[in-house]
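User: My advisor, Dr. K., asked me to get a structural model of this assembly before our group meeting. I'm new to this, so sorry if the format is off. These are the inputs:
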Amino acid sequence: MSLAVEVANVVRSFGRVRALAGVSLDVEEGEFFGLLGPNGAGKTTLISIIAGLTRADSGAARVLGSDVIADYRKARRALGVVPQELVFDPFFSVRETLEIQSGYFGIRHNDAWIDEILHHLDLTAKADANMRSLSGGMKRRVLVGQALVHKPPVIVLDEPTAGVDVELRQSLWAFIRKLNRDGHTIILTTHYLEEAEALCGRIAMLKAGRVVALDTTKNLLANVAGLTVRLVADRVPGAWQPRLQSQDGRVFVLGLDRYADLEALLAALRVDGIAIDEMALQETDLEQVFLRITGSGRPPATGSTS
Amino acid sequence: MIRIAGAGWLTLLYKELLRFWKVAFQTILAPVITALLYLLIFSHVLESRVSVFGGQIGYTAFLVPGLVMMSVLQNAFANTSSSLIQSKITGNMIFILLTPLSPADFFAAYVLGAMARGLVVGLGVFVVTLFFVPTLIAMPHPFWALAFVLLGSAILGTLGLVAGIWAEKFDQLAAFQNFLITPLTFLSGVFYSIHSLPPFWQSLSHANPFFYMIDGFRYGFFGLSDVSPALSLGIVAGCAFLLSLVTLALLRSGWKLRA
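Assistant: The format is fine. Below is the predicted structure of the whole assembly, which you can bring to the meeting.
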């Protein structure tokens, strides 16, 4: 398989802040790839470098084999980017916005595809409305439309569902999934971990400008114990201390490999005479993987980063 | 769907034209009215008191080409600078930066858009002032006038491009306009012939490139000028060329836009 995006040893600093400290990763054609990380991890900087919006201090990035600087025309034709900020040009209507964006790529008479985009994004009724009159969710969909006008084989979405209501998010994801099935490579950054878990085949986790994990979503989930038990008690049995994932006062979170381990845990608690106030069992989700790997005390905030 | 390689800049030009045309009241009509006010006030006060070119032409007739050129220059500057700062502040610049448009495409589209706005406003001012000085229609050297108006609008459009990319806030842009563009325009001989100035200010005016734009443009109307029109054309064309080279180099470097 050939590579949709290659990033090799990319370093980028802003003043004394090192946004990317040597990032390398490859995304294969046809993948649905997730880019996760806490605020300030460098996700948007990495996307900006791939899109040619920012230049790397060192290292290289390629889109479908074209260097983003030396061969920027080919690289940018191959790439569609949905930016994180809700930006628009207040002078134009939805259709004008899409026609103009299409024209920048040298594409004329693109009406059939623009109509299809409007239809899939549920914007047909708003085609002739001025951008200013649209709701936030509609503007977000126009941004998605603008990224697609030139039918790019690789699509990058930077937090595309921030501020979009649940119903709309579902339809947006259905559309992105369809694009992926049709052969488009999708790269997604998101704060909604369950979303990444449900959509992405492979995930890179970024922290402080470095890739701290890069694997299939399945492997990432498998690498963390399959189950966790949340326990409210005075203490946990000594033999179970190594299984302790986190502790907050009397709240303990323990990792289990399988359901059968629960039996052993309960037995150990009984032997030590520890009373259980509360107990809950949950399967591992990406959020726990994320917390384990990035080592941050709490899940990333939802909302926008810069 | 048709893909025409290298045609993207035409869309950017179209967008730039549409942008000012959609608000023509403010971008075209308003500057024409302003120029008309200048004409009414200055010609009323000064017609009988100021003698230009040894009394060969009336002050009002002298003033008109100056006002036309001033309007062209100011509006060409305003077009690129305001378009860019608005795109930067609202963030929609990203739509252009994500495309395969080259630095030369970007430059050509923005500067031609600015020239178009400048020329439309200039033509508007000229047409309106013809009611006051109808004899001006008989220009002895229209092609000289055209050359200066094209080069002048290109220079100011390019300066507006640089200012728009440089400025991060509207007040920085206003500073560029108030402390550079307006003084250079007003002190270039729009309202007077530099021969009426004391020698020191006369020689200082020769260091102002805007002076040559206006003096050369005026030559097209009267066949009279403070310095030789060929010299003016050489200086103005040289400025346009150098400024374009510098601006293209800035755009290629990604200065401020792809920081």
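One thing worth pointing out at the meeting: The interface with chain B takes residues 51-55, 72-74, 76-77, 79, 81, 83, 85, 87-92, 100-110, 112-113, 146 of chain A (CB under 8 Å).

User: Perfect, thanks a lot.
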